[in-house]
## 1
Amino acid sequence: MAGLSLMGVLLLSGCGNTGKSAVAAASSTSVSETSNEAGKGTKVSQPAENVDAQVAEASLPQPGEAISASLAWKSRMELAYATQFAVDTYEDADGMQYEAVSVADGSRFLLIPEGGKVPEDLPDSGGDAGMTVGIIGLGLIGGSLAKAYRRDPSVTVLGWDTDRSITEFAQIAQAIHAPLTEERLGELDLLLLATYPEAVVEHMERLAPKIQPHTMVIDCAGTKEKVCQKVFPLAEEYGFPFLGGHPMAGTHFSGFKYSRDDLFDGAPMVLVPPTFDDIRLLDRAKKLLEPVGFGRVSITTADKHDQRIAFTSQMAHVISNAYIKSPTAREHDGFSAGSYKDLTRVAWLNPSMWAELFLENKKNLLFELDTLIGNLNQYKQALEDEDFPTLCRLLDEGRRIKEEVDGK
């Protein structure tokens, strides 16, 4: 994560055909560099020159947020430069319009027309004094979490991804308010890590000394045992609360572009706490997760989680992926319906992600595979022997178990 300097107000003059203007910028660039960015981002015909700058601490709010008694955002957003800038407009009580440009690198510029003045007492950009959530990893899961939290105007969402362009796109798409930097970790009420298990551990080993005691940390990786073994001691050493987590929703697609704000509506969320007698910890976790829209929260241990996930999720992906390898698959068109679609949907997976999850949970997955292969061999033997009674018995056993576990 790159550093982020304090927000400041830069008073600029000679900005092309726009007349005198003031620019509030969050940037680690110099004044001259900031001036050039302002020239690019505000549709000015040429960059400002001979800039006379005054600096004062300030920051920009988000659309829809009141910034003073006489100044409030007009809830309007348009893309000025599709991949680099986004422009917001707000106006004061006298009808004077102001423009704010959000640059993809996290910088924000406040443009004040001639005759206007720099607003005072601007609050920090984000929600209305609610919680602040940080999300590491902005793929399908992290992106959907960000969009879910953004539905609540009281929540400020900061995000970061290893691919900087994804972080930039998430900000322009309004999935996050601003990039998450190490300097802003202290602002967080909740930190969510939506990455692979190994990456969760790497992030926590680096960030743990910088996380504040008031920040709750929840990982969202697909396996829990190794993550919890590594991170529980770190959380205890540095004095912040950590829970393993697994939001039980997804699609066969991956990546931020497939994320959506309702992915977790009504879905289960699994939590793995360090102990089971801390009711306040679990209650706080549920409240922090409430804006996401989970239907229920289940509490379990790391080993029980991984045992069950091997059966409910990982095995389904192995079976689907292996089943589609039949040479007959290329000839199914016109001969397939719901059964084929149901069984093959998750064959369309992210190979590197699922390979890592399978290896992380090797013991439990091998148990499920051995169990399945043993059962399949019984069906195979009954077919080879043309043993009608045995085949009927096997099929009826499966039907009855399905009825028992999932109802009619």
## 2
Amino acid sequence: MADQQNHDADVKQLHSMGYAQELSRRMGLFQNFAISFSIICILAGGVTAFPLSLSAAGGASLGIGWPIASLFALLVAAALGQIASAYPTAGGIYHWASILGNRGFGWAAAWLNLLGLMFVVSSVNFGLYLLVKDLMMPGVFHIDTSGWTWWTQTIFITVVTIIQAIINHRGIKLTTLLTDFSGYLIFVVTIILIVALIAFSPVAMDLGKLFVFTDYTGDAGGGVWPTPASDRWLGAIFPAAIAALILGWLQGVYTITGFDASGHTSEETRNAAREVPKGMIHSVFWSAVFGYIMVCSFVLAMPSVEEGAKQGWLSFPWMMDQSLMPGVLKDVLIIGIVVANFLCALAGLTSCSRMLFAFSRDGGVPWFSSALRKVSKEHRTPANAIWASATRPEFTWTQSWRQGDLLIWDNRCAMHRRDAFDPSTRRLMHRTQVKGDTPFFRPAR
């Protein structure tokens, strides 16, 4: 009875904002929490982006830098959660920006959020490829991957993304089952990894490592940050070690992101006005806490922070190789990390597709809105938006991040059509209160 009342209240609130209930509301608090927790995935950014911190200011980047980055992420989550409680729609950030700001803010937020979500899916799958290539294949299966080429990378990422799209297409029930599993998996693997690294550390525990400022930018850090901190504009303002610490924040802010997924799945969450903010804030808080303990254990388990930083992008595999933990345990943990990264990108694709669906429902995607807003009658998922989210970004990868090259991102998402919504042309987007399928945004006549 209570569930039905909550469902009726959810539908009524959605109708009051001009939308019909098209998606299936199968998610509860834990499912909403799990999808954001899975996208944050401390076993993804906490592992693959670990060199960004270690090769910046050494142990201090983790011991001091991670809590600072986490605090800012938690402030953002609290603000977004407050807004999500008032406007629980799949549009999320761009919808809120339009209501609280203006049409221009809404348009900009929509494209930035959409392109950012597409990039998250691809970047996590790229990190998954590196984990398979540099950690799982040689470390677990003893397969030489030195001959893997750009084509191997491209085929791997393509196949993985297609699998994630198929899972999303088949329905939110299957997706939530996997993201629920991901939430438990992240907790379990993280806890076991922390305990194993400390228990089987080759050196005695020295907490002082976490608060030592050392500038490892440049060659000292394996070229992760090719330009030394002292030669950057930050180096002209702060001492080199402090400038390096600021660079190291990138790991934390990169890892603890994507929690707007709780908002993007509002229309699939029961009692959304209450549960969505809880899911969002809890996902950030627990990621920050467990992530901090985990990255600190990485530093504490290193025989030498200096030697670890010299490994550059291979500092995590090197750290695992130095650990004295049993081989079977090490293999299980590595496989768990790889699976968690796959599920992280899966959840990212879910969030991205819902945002694209909502934006298309509002008529915001030139030429393709009518197709991308369609919902599968069989699975009650935004099928076209899912496949567009999986295939539309066109990424050109240079040799590799570990060689210091930039990721070239070429996305042709009709950005040149901004003139359709440019205030200078007076073709603005405005809100409607009409129930049903009327777009939230439409060009003013």
## 3
Amino acid sequence: MITVLTREYLATYVYLESEIKRIRRRIKYYEEHPVQQQYGVVKGSMQQFPFAECHFVVSGPTIKSNSEREKMVRQLIIDLKGNEQLFEDMKLDIETFLETLPAEDIEIKHILGLKYVERKSDGEIAKKLNYSRRTIGLKIDKFLNAIQKKRSSNLASKINMIPYAKASIPIAAGDDFYAYIPVSIDTSMYKLICPILSDVTGDNCTKIIISTCKWKDGQVYIMGNNQASGAANISLSGTVLVIK
């Protein structure tokens, strides 16, 4: 069951319906157009005297075999049944979502039901509700835009960026190194914690190869190697992306 109705979901739903119609057309075509034979005339001669010239009719199927055609039709039928089931499931999801709308949204609920459940065109809906076709489109756009805005606002409230830094990390030439950088985060509040290393500065910093940057034991854990021919002294900084 969907918890929010999005443009992407509705676009997939509408596309699925068009795909079902396309598959049905193909199946109907094969049912109404059996395997055809192609005919042609060739010249030959009688096998016995007087070896007079004769003409012969020859024929052959337009595709390799009936079994090949039947196999293709069977696959189309399988695809059709699968898409029909998915379409009905999506329609039920849309109906269920519309039932959750509050009383003040009764008009848009009716419009969306006509459009996506009963599959009426905007013109048919406009005529039924005494609106212009353009007005129906604007009402649907306004509703979907409000949903998108609310989703974006909700997502923004769940994301936070927490900076971190560690200075003066000495590394001998050719040596591996690791650094634990403490960051004050209440891990119980977040579903995802992802550290991002954004800057490496200091002596021979361009020769530093970072192999690991992750959240470990309540800290940012960074590991790498100094590939310079001399010692390096670097500073690390970045942010921790957290999502509730």
